[in-house]
């Protein structure tokens, strides 16, 4: 059922930045009282399904939004998905992921770290402050959305793992479970899906480990229970249903790069001047809009990320 | 005597079951249904933000019309084998129906691409046509189809002569192959659908090769048998 018409969020629904800053100071002060109490007060975004709002809410601090960027309707965000583990059509994930089990969920953090560990998802998230952030999202297929995510900074988690001096890259792996993920029974991609970042990219404050969207717990088709969000890179870098985060000294192999190296590079930063071999990346179609928009360098996040790539030939390192 | 459509006069009178009177009209209406649905869905999705074609109606509609083009090409290729198997020779004239609908859907597919998808951005159109093999292959198929659409009338058959007309219309074979390649190269990774269309086209062209081969062999065998 289309919910769109009634829930086009007005600007007043988006939490203003000042409130966010206040919330952070409040949270810091409230640390001693305990996270449970804070959640009960409504101060901290909740991760518990029972406490989530019935209706999706486009809440969060806007990051790098253009003046005419409005959150893409929940209906589109949750039914137009690339998540090949559940099928290759955009509508497949929302159909086939309905019974996907996301609890209990273990995340292994290992590799070149001083504190390798297997975490239950709840323990993994607990030490961090959960934030709501509204990001632009640009798919490599030249469509885009604006999405209110909920998650923790990836940098927090990396710091806690204490990478040693040899660690240069971070490798992420999706759950391998062909029984639950029918796509993994096909040969479309090398399973399990893997992704990778340079350590400094992973430590960029924009890199988010998301557990929710639109103020609600992440729907299965959006990569539940834990996914990456990297708004300056093409969407496929934002790996879903993560079970392992490994620090390495060698550049990790990534799923799409292994499948088609000439089309999908390791970096995959959004770049309007470097075309995909089969289509232009200069423009994009915002889901819900007819006329195309110009694609922005680093998807509009150049200020926050461009310095990581100075001196690199982005044509070669696409 | 054979006419341009390869039918013996005797076939028409002896073997064929007569075509039901309502069939041509019903066929044409049915062939229009996907185009009407696609146009309606795209218009409604773009203007009224419904989601008949999901969240990306232009892309979805473009692909939908492209697939129907291939289906009509396959239907036109299926007529002759079907006629040969069933003896329903009245089917032959519907090669034209299917062929013209294939051309119509191809035009809608192309218009969706040029007007709604690329939105007549000249730079993008030029780049697509000069740098992207799958677009070039699709365009080649479209150009090859124009003479076939233009010579689809009975008049053209008469003017060209059955033999030349038949030879010209054999262009549908490379067009079908180009269409499948266009689809194949266009998908991101999952080649299931293009593969299905490829199998259909290969089977229908294979049928012709086998018939042609066995006919070539037959008189040869007869001569051999007749030799002392």
Summarize this, please?
The complex is a heterodimer of chains A (318) and B (228). Chain A contains ten helices and 13 strands. The N and C termini of chain A lie far apart (39 Å).
Pick out its properties.
heterodimer; A: 318 residues; alpha+beta; Sulfite Oxidase, Chain A, domain 2; eight-stranded mixed β-sheet; five-stranded mixed β-sheet; 10 helices; B: 228 residues; mainly alpha; 0% strand; disordered C terminus
CATH H-tier superfamily of chain A: Oxidoreductase, molybdopterin-binding domain
Tally of contiguous helical segments of chain A:
10
Distance between the termini of chain B: 32 Å
Count of β-strands of chain A = 13
Rg calc of chain B: 20 Å
Structural class of the helices, strands and pairings of chain A? Answer: alpha+beta
Q: What is the CATH topology assignment of chain A? A: Sulfite Oxidase, Chain A, domain 2
Largest interface, C-beta within 8 A: A-B, 31 and 24 residues
Q: Tell me the number of helical segments of chain B per DSSP (H or I, 4 or more residues long).
A: 10
What fraction strand of chain B?
under 5%
DSSP, total strands of chain B: 0
The main sheet of chain A comes to: 8 strands, mixed
Into which percent range does the helicity of residues of chain B fall? Answer: over 70%
Structural category of chain B: mainly alpha
| Element-level helix/strand string of chain B | HHHHHHHHHH
**N to C succession of SSEs of chain A:** HHHEHHEEHEEHEEHEEEEHEEH
Oligomer: heterodimer
Largest pleated sheet of chain B: none
Low-confidence stretches of chain B: 222-228
Please bin the fraction of helical residues of chain A: 10-25%
């Amino acid at each position: 059922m289309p919910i769109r018409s009634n829930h086009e969020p007005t600007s007043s629904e988006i939490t203003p930045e000042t409130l966010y800053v206040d919330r952070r100071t409040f949270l810091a002060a409230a640390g001693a009282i305990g996270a449970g109490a804070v959640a009960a007060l409504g101060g901290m975004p909740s991760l518990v399904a029972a406490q989530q709002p019935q209706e999706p809410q486009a809440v969060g601090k806007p990051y790098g939004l253009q003046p005419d960027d409005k959150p893409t309707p929940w209906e589109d965000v949750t039914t137009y998905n690339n998540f090949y583990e559940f099928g290759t059509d955009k509508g497949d994930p929302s159909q086939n992921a309905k019974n996907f089990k996301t609890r209990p969920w273990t995340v292994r953090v290992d590799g070149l770290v001083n504190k390798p560990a297997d975490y239950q998802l709840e323990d993994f998230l607990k030490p961090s402050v959960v934030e709501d952030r509204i990001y632009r999202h640009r798919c490599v297929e030249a469509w885009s959305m604006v999405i209110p995510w909920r998650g923790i900074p990836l940098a927090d988690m990396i710091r806690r793992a204490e990478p040693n001096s040899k660690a240069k890259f971070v490798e992420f792996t999706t759950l391998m479970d062909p029984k639950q993920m029918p796509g993994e029974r096909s040969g479309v991609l090398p399973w399990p899906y893997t992704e990778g970042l340079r350590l400094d990219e992973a430590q960029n404050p924009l890199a988010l480990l998301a557990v929710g969207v639109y103020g609600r717990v992440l729907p299965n088709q959006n990569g539940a229970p834990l996914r990456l969000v990297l708004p300056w890179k093409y969407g496929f870098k934002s790996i879903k249903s993560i079970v392992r985060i490994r620090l390495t000294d060698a550049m990790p192999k990534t799923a799409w790069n292994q499948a088609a190296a000439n089309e999908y590079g390791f970096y995959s930063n959004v770049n309007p001047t470097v075309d995909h071999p089969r289509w232009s990346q200069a423009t994009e179609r915002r889901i819900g809009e007819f006329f195309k928009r110009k694609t922005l360098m680093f998807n509009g996040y150049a200020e926050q990320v461009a310095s990581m790539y100075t001196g690199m030939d982005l044509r070669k390192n696409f | 005597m054979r006419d341009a459509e390869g039918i013996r006069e005797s076939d028409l009178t002896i073997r064929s079951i007569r075509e039901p009177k309502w069939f041509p009209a019903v066929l044409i209406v049915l062939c229009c249904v996907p185009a009407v649905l696609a146009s309606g869905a795209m218009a409604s999705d773009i203007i009224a933000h419904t989601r008949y074609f999901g969240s990306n109606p232009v892309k979805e509609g473009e692909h939908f019309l492209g697939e129907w083009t291939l289906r009509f090409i396959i239907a036109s290729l299926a007529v002759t084998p079907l006629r040969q198997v069933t003896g329903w020779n009245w089917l032959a004239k519907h090669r034209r129906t299917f062929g013209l609908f294939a051309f119509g859907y191809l035009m809608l597919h192309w218009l969706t691409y040029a007007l709604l998808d690329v939105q007549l951005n000249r730079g993008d159109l030029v780049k697509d046509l000069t740098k992207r093999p799958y677009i070039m292959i699709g365009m080649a198929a479209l150009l090859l189809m124009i003479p076939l659409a233009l010579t689809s009338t009975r008049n053209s058959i008469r003017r060209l002569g059955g033999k030349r007309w038949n030879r010209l219309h054999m262009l549908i074979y490379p067009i079908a192959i180009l269409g499948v390649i266009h689809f194949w190269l266009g998908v991101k990774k999952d080649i299931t659908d293009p593969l299905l269309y490829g199998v259909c086209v290969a089977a229908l062209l294979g049928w012709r090769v086998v018939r042609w081969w066995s006919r070539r062999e037959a008189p040869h065998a007869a001569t051999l048998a007749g030799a002392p």
